[in-house]
């Protein structure tokens, strides 16, 4: 489970301050999908960077199963970061590596041996519906398939939290629905807390259990999907 408490990020530009995030709090238990929806400029990108500690929040906590990532330093931070699998808008695959090597990359980084890696990669490719694509290269796959590979890679290090950053904005409607169904199916693994950050209401409506509405760095509504959708 992921718990975010009072997360604030202030950017300074000369004398001007921009409060990109202002006291954001939320909890996502395992086995559930939480959506964060907001217009352009609401603070979504900043939230993604602060949750993954690519950017240091100005204040506040990001806890995964009770461990505060914002207090972790260097080695501990690298380990803690692996607790969050990040899926980008575009899969961001290495074009010169096979699909199997892309998915296995996070495992390579932590020194998992080749045989174990191959086994885990095959399992992950099966999970995302691409059991026969390991030897292909990214350019040979469709956008939807590449996004599946991105999801498999995010799952490789067996994270507790899966964070999707605009996962379907680059996809056509049919492919979008297929990817949303895949995200929904991950819920049934049971042990993942899934966070989906998007500007698209239809994405939230289709897959989320609960939703937070982000506006100018603040969460202005939060609760079960039906309740929040009814306020809009
Ligand atoms: P979104 O992803 O929802 O479009 P962002 O997180 O990119 O929103 O931006 C939130 C606010 O913070 C905006 O006002 C943006 O201009 C500002 N902002 C984002 N990053 C920076 C930065 N590095 N320096 C200064 N202001 C920033
Ligand atoms: P996105 O499509 O991710 O919302 P943005 O256009 O909001 O992209 O931001 C792109 C990059 O520019 C991000 O790294 C963000 O932090 C930075 N950025 C956004 N607004 C500002 C700003 N006002 N000043 C400086 N950097 C900014």
Automatic annotation (TrEMBL):
Coiled coil: none
Organism name: Tessaracoccus flavus
Keyword Transmembrane found: no
Recorded GO MF terms: ATP binding; ATP hydrolysis activity
Protein name: Methionine ABC transporter ATP-binding protein
Record key words, sorted: Amino-acid transport, ATP-binding, Cell membrane, Membrane, Nucleotide-binding, Translocase, Transport
GO BP terms: amino acid transport
Superkingdom field: Bacteria
């Amino acid at each position: 489970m992921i718990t975010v408490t009072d997360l604030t990020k202030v950017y300074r530009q000369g004398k001007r301050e921009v409060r990109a995030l202002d006291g954001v709090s939320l909890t996502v238990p395992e086995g559930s999908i939480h959506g964060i929806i907001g217009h352009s400029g609401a603070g979504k990108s900043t939230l993604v960077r602060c949750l993954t500690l690519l950017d240091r929040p100005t204040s506040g906590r990001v806890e995964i199963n009770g461990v505060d990532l914002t207090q972790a330093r260097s080695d501990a931070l690298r380990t803690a970061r692996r607790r969050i699998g990040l899926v980008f808008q575009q899969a961001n695959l290495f074009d010169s590596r096979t699909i199997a090597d892309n998915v296995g990359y996070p495992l390579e980084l932590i020194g998992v041996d080749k045989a174990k890696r191959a086994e885990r990669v095959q399992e992950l490719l099966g999970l995302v519906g691409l059991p026969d694509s390991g030897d292909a290269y990214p350019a040979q796959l469709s956008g939807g398939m590449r996004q599946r590979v991105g999801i498999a890679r995010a799952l490789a290090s067996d994270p507790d939290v899966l964070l999707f950053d605009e996962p379907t904005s680059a996809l056509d409607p049919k492919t979008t629905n297929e990817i949303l169904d895949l995200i929904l199916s991950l819920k049934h693994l049971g042990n993942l807390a899934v966070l989906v950050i998007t500007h698209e209401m239809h994405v939230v409506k289709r897959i989320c259990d609960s939703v937070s509405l982000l506006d100018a760095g603040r969460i202005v509504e939060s609760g079960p999907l039906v309740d929040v959708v009814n306020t809009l």
